[in-house]
Amino acid sequence: MRLWEIKKTIKECIDENNQIVIEHEAIYWNQAYRIKNYGKLIDVFDVLYEQRWNDVNPENINSIIKELWTEMNSIDIWLDQFNQLNNYVSQLNTKLPLFYSILETMVEDQEEQIINIKIPENKILSLNNLSEFNTRLYKIFEKFKIDGQFEFKWLDKWTSRYEILVVWVMTYRFFLSCLKIAKEFLETTKVYYESKKAKLDYLASLKKDEKFEEKQFKTYTDKRIELEIEDKIQETIEHLPVENWKTKVELQTQLIIATKSLIKELWKGTEFHLSLNPPSYVNEAWSWLVIDYKKISALMAEENKPKKLEDKKDIKVEVEAEVDTNTESKK
Fold it and tell me: Could you tell me the residue ranges of all domains in the chain?
């Protein structure tokens, strides 16, 4: 994890003295406590666990975390659990202020409209690979230009990340919108392709005497997904102001092409992360823009894995059965 990310994670839970604060209130007549920043605390514990200076034994707190696992930021815990949590935090706070003060001297806050780009792992094996990657990035960002430029700011050689600054607000907001669409596309496309709904949608589009064909089915699903991308781009344009010098049709065409390029790059393993100090409206309204790159990586691995002959036969038999049922129902 980069120093910026460590600093940002810790900053979410500390006070002016650089000490971790448990945001809590007593409930059930002081027999339990509601922890309002529980999720953020767990993130801090994970970060600090990796630091060499941290010699606090996490065994007790880990058992509590395992028992109280939740995706919610707020949680209710009993008094004895709260006391253990409080004790663990108190021990961390003896050394944390010094560590965080060092982080502050080493790490500057990123500009708000920075896009952090992580180079695909194990894909850049030569100067030619790097040149091709840079060319792809350049073309993607050129397609997103609406009212401003993209500036190259920094290459973090330790984590293989670029920092690109989006100079103007409109271009930045359209980029975020298209990144959201790309995220949803990658998370749902494979699921849709393999779903029964996709097969039934395709079967419903066939004429009475037509049969299921795998090649045509793929063409159908590809077109279906493309139409969804176009529809979401149109919605984005309707909700964000458009400059007078570009029509909505021109902008829609431009952003559809840009989004498809972005999807291809994400599928190659490139990661796009927001600034560690994003605009306030991003924190408030765009908190959903967290892409699970591990999930995408798993989908890529599954997609690239050769299908067994038996699997293909099973799919064909299942679909043919559905076709027969569909034909009978039409009769």
Answer: 3-106, 114-322
Token pair 């493309």 is found at 226
Judged by average pLDDT, the poorest of 66-80, 89-103, 121-135, 266-280 is 266-280
1 and 35 in contact (C-beta within 8 Å)? no
Distance in angstroms (rounded) separating the CA atoms of residues 7 and 12: 9
Up-side HSE of residue 117: CA atoms within 13 Å toward CB? 27
Residue 133, CB half-sphere, CA atoms under 13 Å: how many? 22
Which residues fall within 8 angstroms of residue 61, CB to CB, at 6 or more apart?
Answer: 45, 84, 85, 88
The answer to whether 299 touches 190, Cβ cutoff 8 Å, is yes
pLDDT tens for 123-145 read 788 889 889 999 999 998 888 88
Give me 68's structure tokens. 């109280």
Largest CA distance in the chain: 78
At 210-262, the pLDDT tens digits run 888 888 887 887 788 788 888 888 887 877 666 555 777 888 888 888 888 99
Distances (CA, A) of 137 to 181, 264, 297: 18, 11, 19
